[in-house]
Amino acid sequence: MNRRRVTVGVAAAGVVAGAAGLGVLAMPAGAGPAPDLPAVSAESLVESVVTAKPAAFGGTVEVANDLGIPALPGMPQLSDGDSKVRMWTDGEGRFRMQLPAGSAERTVVDDGAQVWSWNSEDQTVTKLPHDAEDRRRVDEAGKSSDPVALSREVVSALQEFSEITVDGTARVANRPVYELVLTPKPAERTVLREVRVAVDAELRMPLRVALLTNGTAAPAAQIGFSELNVGPQDAGLFSFTPPAGAEVKEETAAEPTEQDKAKAEEALGQISQQVVGTGWDTVLVAKATPELLTQFEQSGQRPQTDRGPRRAEGDVPQGDIQEMIKQLGKPVSGDWGSGTLITSRVGGALIADDGRVALGAVPEQVLVEAIGQVK
Amino acid sequence: MTTATTTAVRAPLGRQLRSELRWIIRRPRTFFGLLSLCLVPIVAGVGMWVAMDGDGPLGPGLAAIIAGNGLVLPVFTLFLSLPLLLPLIGAIWAADGIAGEAQHGTLRGLLLAPVGRVRLLAIKAFGVAAMTLIATALMALVGAVTGAILFGGQGMLTLSGTTLPFVEAVGRIALTVLLVTVQVWGVAAVALAISTTTEHPLVVMATTLGGVILFNVLGVFEALDWLHPYLITSSWNSLADVMRDPLPTDQLWRSTALAGCYVLIGLSLAAMRMATKDN
């Protein structure tokens, strides 16, 4: 019967359309054609980024990590995989940031006077005074030095160790951007192949940063806007009222007492920190004194009393840290001593058993060389 | 006058839809089914109320903000029921619609009646869709009342730490009802397609639930992450976005569109089977 055939035909088309719809939904959103933008030299692009004024915007930042490091509980933004950060700023220092994690959320609001931090997991609000002093200092520093001169300095500092190029244009969060590429000079011994920064053509604000390593085409880490609305934001976003029933912890950043200062100085004195290498090879090396190390070990052996179910997931008890380091890395040894090497796709950390630590975006050999220089 | 006598008089669609709905609601098992669904928010609410001892969160995710915040209970209950209970309910309506009629031998009469088969399927699909909406709305209503009584609270505390006024809170609950209903429609449409191929309602329920469980299992394996965007179950976790403020809509739209694709595929397959079905 003709009518039956029509029905079957339409229904078959419906199945195909539904399947095609699933395919479209599964595909990542296309970025669209690269926009035509006036050519710009890499130097002037970097200079414009340094001198750009902060803009008011709201948007969603997507973080895609493929670093090869284990997951940190409660913080998907720092672990491998994809995660999101939602942020709003009025361009004048007030901001709001929301970090969704599963069906929980952390919110940080800086309303200009206070910094509020909310965690839905335990319904707690932490209140910190907004560090106005620091900001004034930064402002003054910014004013006193000529921004153009500062930007020149940044450019020459970058060019000392890297090639800076503008690699065409692209679209990020539906906005036209220039792709700025920083490539290490051949003499640099780093595991990174290049760093790509997408700079907004109008705002001159970095919209996406991608770290690319040797041997792979996909970025090892990428952070960038997936959605961006530039313009004044709803003022209500920059205020926070602690919800009824939430526990409000007030942390006063009052002047540190003399005792605190002495303690901090003592702790710093026990860690001798230095930088080995320059440019991309920079390795941060630190050494904890034996006293600090024994303290650390003792705290590790302290019996754990708070192993109740109420313990927040994100807390790592002190004692587990050394265990964790051992689990994360592989044991290595050499002329310099022995320790644990933790590698990720963007660099590594070498933790010697005697308290020396070397950290950098470099291969193992450079870490070993650096740690050898610490006495 | 003359035209009225010469053309075949078709029953108005509205009357057919109403009669289908009346048929479903009048069944005793529908009444008991809805009654047991109403128990879910009550049991969940009382359970958490008993567990609430003043310090520490009640649990992970949404449960953590439920203390003193009763209007979250309907949302929490709907998300609690979405992975298994609500798909089962949708599958039951869908199984009754076609396979149930076939089992009782009444489908033959319907197929022979001067009603187009596509129209018959549309009426059956409407019955399933309406009953799903009624079920979720009822759960939300009972949940809201239970929550307000047990936990109280002014407005609704979101996961982001903001408090929504009462009207907006009711809007969020209504949005959750709609979003969850659409997801159940996606499952029920596929169940309806299965329903047209068999005359055993139990087969429909078992196959649908088995499928949902299989999808949940597939969603766990990281090695299959290329498959996850196609699975209707994988978008259910992102529905928790409804409790964030400001409301992020992109994932909600995406999951609704995904369920829409399942509805389209399920109903098309059902129509294909109905059109070619022998009397």
Task: Report Rg of chain B.
Answer: 21 Å
What is the averaged pLDDT score of chain B?
89
N- and C-termini, Cα separation of chain A: 92 Å
Structurally, the number of domains of chain A stands at: 2
Query: Considering DSSP H and I runs of 4 or more, what fraction of the residues of chain A is helical?
Result: 25-40%
Residue share in β-strands of chain A? 35-45%
Strand order of the largest sheet of chain B: 1-2
Biased composition (Basic and acidic residues) (chain A): 304-314
Domain MucB/RseB N-terminal (chain A): 137-232
Protein name (chain A): Membrane protein
Region (Disordered) (chain A): 296-316
Topology at a glance:
The complex is a heterodimer of chains A (about 375) and B (about 280).
Chain A: H1 2-26, H2 42-51, E1 57-65, E2 81-89, E3 95-101, E4 104-110, E5 114-119, E6 124-129, H3 132-144, H4 147-161, E7 162-172, E8 175-184, E9 192-200, E10 206-213, E11 221-230, E12 247-250, H5 258-270, E13 271-276, E14 283-288, H6 290-301, H7 318-328, E15 330-334, E16 337-344, E17 347-352, E18 356-360, H8 364-372
Parallel strand pairs in A: 6-12
Antiparallel strand pairs in A: 1-2, 1-11, 2-3, 3-4, 4-5, 5-6, 7-8, 8-9, 9-10, 10-11, 13-14, 14-18, 15-16, 16-17, 17-18
Helix pairs in contact in A: 2-4, 6-7
Chain B: H1 2-6, H2 13-26, H3 28-51, H4 72-81, H5 85-104, H6 106-112, H7 117-150, E1 156-157, E2 163-164, H8 166-195, H9 201-218, H10 250-276
Antiparallel strand pairs in B: 1-2
Helix pairs in contact in B: 2-7, 3-4, 3-7, 4-7, 4-8, 5-7, 5-8, 5-9, 7-8, 7-10, 8-9, 8-10
